[in-house]
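User: Here's a structure from my thesis project, written as structure tokens. My advisor, Dr. K., wants to see whether a designed sequence matches the one we expressed. Can you design one independently, without my sequence as a hint?
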């Protein structure tokens, strides 16, 4: 079975994006789509970026652990809030920390906002960064508007049927990319 790492990128006090990360962990597990884990950037609490991991003389155990988890994952879901049209520094920090680990890594984007736009404004800057580090972003997006009203603290959606339907389409695209990458990795060069 393939493995998906879910990056919960908000480290903010009172964060709501983590609710959506919890939803995806439950959704993937309940539907037996893959094995999964949440990589909570609040728990990692990385220092501000100074240098890529590959060039650091003494990387921390946490940095090596995070890099290994990304490398071992068949796909990654990035759950990010939109802060003033951009994504949080905690996410930029880990995107820049790694490089080779992102190469052709299938990534699904989940954007979250407290307003009505569902994180749509963060897409441009995040897509550009992921393109620059050579990640493979799945074409389907999962956008959450008014997250505070849409999910409880345990990640349960208020409208489960609709949320599951949208999550299914999103996950099918990500899983397709993961399966395509696995097949391409088996092709002899």
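Assistant: Designed independently from the structure alone:
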């Amino acid at each position: 079975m393939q493995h998906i790492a879910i990056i919960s990128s908000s480290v903010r006090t009172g964060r709501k994006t983590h609710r959506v990360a919890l939803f995806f962990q439950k959704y993937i597990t309940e539907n037996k789509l893959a094995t999964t884990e949440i990589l909570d950037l609040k728990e990692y609490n990385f220092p501000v970026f100074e240098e890529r991991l590959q060039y650091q003389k003494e990387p921390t155990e946490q940095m090596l652990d995070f890099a290994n988890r990304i490398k071992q994952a068949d796909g990654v879901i990035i759950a990010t809030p939109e802060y003033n049209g951009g994504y949080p520094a905690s996410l930029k920090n880990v995107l820049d920390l790694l490089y080779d680990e992102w190469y052709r890594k299938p990534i699904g984007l989940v954007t979250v906002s407290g307003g009505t736009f569902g994180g749509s404004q963060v897409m441009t800057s995040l897509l550009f960064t992921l393109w620059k580090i050579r990640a493979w972003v799945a074409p389907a997006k999962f956008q959450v508007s008014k997250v505070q009203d849409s999910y409880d603290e345990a990640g349960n959606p208020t409208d489960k049927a609709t949320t599951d339907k949208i999550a299914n389409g999103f996950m099918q695209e990500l899983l397709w990319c993961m399966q395509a990458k696995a097949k391409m990795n088996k092709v002899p060069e």
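When you compare it with your expressed construct, this may help: The mean pLDDT is 93.
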